Amino acid sequence: MKNKNGYFIFLFFIIIILFQKLLAEFMSFHGYGSFLKIELVVMFVVIYIYVVKKSGPLGTYSIFLATSFIFLYSRIVLDIFKLLKFEESVLFSRIVLNDLTVIIVIECLLFSLLFSFLAFLMFFRKSGWEKKISTNTSLEKISMWILFILAPLVILDASLKIYFVSQYGYLSLFDGLFVQNPVYRLLGYVSRSYIYLFYVFLSSHPTKANFKKTAGLFILITLLDMLAGKRGEAMILLLIVLWYNFNFYNGKIKLNQIILAIGSVVVFSQLTLMLRSGFSNISFLDGFLSFFELNGMSIYVLGYVVELRGLFVNEGLPYFLSPIYDLFLRILGNSAVFYQGNTLELLESTNYLGRQLTYFINPGAYLNGHGTGTSYIAEFYDFGGLVGVAGLSFLVIVFVLNLENMMHKNRFYFMVFLAVLYRFIYMPRDSLLRFLSDLVPMGVIYISIVLITHILLRTSSSNRYKGCDYSIEESIQN
User: Fold this and answer.
1) Better pLDDT: 187 or 7
2) I want to staple 465 with a disulfide (CB 3.0 to 4.6 A). Which of 27, 401, 451, 460 is the partner?
């Protein structure tokens, strides 16, 4: 049987969870919570090592586990080493989580980890899809050409964001001051489209030389955007570039390279935070620990949902489905509400967990542009408790891995997977279904470039295009 060691690991931890319920009868809530924290970290390490051996450190599920560690597990590890108290949260409101809440939070992480791992064991395939996607030279050259032409506008957008942050603070990007200006909003559209264009470029399966040149420019722009404060999004885009290089060019990566890459991201991320916040007297170690302490705050979205149960009640659409409603609202409803900052109208029009929770715990912080963000595990728990966390975690991994296995069939499937991949590995602090809002503009851009390619091939009288003509339908599929 394939993955028999993996199934043994799964069954071993299931048995541990069943027996620990008996142990709980002889322990205090606080002592039991401390035991669960250690169990969770041990389980994570064992599963992560197994997954990396199976799929590599830059496999899709491996990256998801790594980002989950940063956003959801890191403060628990810091708590175990007495570097902070996990129970104490200052996420826009100082709340001390009670012992029962801590137990439920840890159990959610345990069930999510175990059942997502089970889905990995059942559906991960080394299908060799990287060898099945041929290079489309025309698509590669045209998309790369457009990327380099638009680069100055995207750099201008990032520079304006950096200026706004330095002059008016980081919240100016979210309180409506920046996005209400039509010129800045247009530049924002260009910057977002730039990411989709990069996906189109990657779908062409470019030569390694062209990939290095274009990815280098893309990384430079991403780092500029990080200086404006959008550290999480920038980190995810960098991971996608590394994922592509690892999976499509048989990239070999060693442990010391991984440590160097992680260390560089942490250092650069903390430098941007210090530039933004004005911190100067901070040691390297404190800065390193601060990275995990601050980014690990996403676990408190779940903590607050559990702690405030009975008071903070979802009376609308399930939170994990809210991106679908938001998408239709943007297309068919009042899209202007999304460009006015954190308003009461926005709060009433949508059911995004991050907005609803922030307003509930600190209305002033919400109206000033702050937000807790969301997390898949909080959305799943609100929908169905521990059963919802286990079941939906399993189904999400099934969906992502099956889509990954299908993406070699044509380039559009591949681009859809890239959109899903971004939201998937950012899911510990965001909503997965937000990828739906990426599909329409990405599809428009892709079809437009295919049409441009088709027209050039049709109208060109150059000999180098002879024999290369094909239909639009073939262009989209191939």
Assistant:
1) 7
2) 460
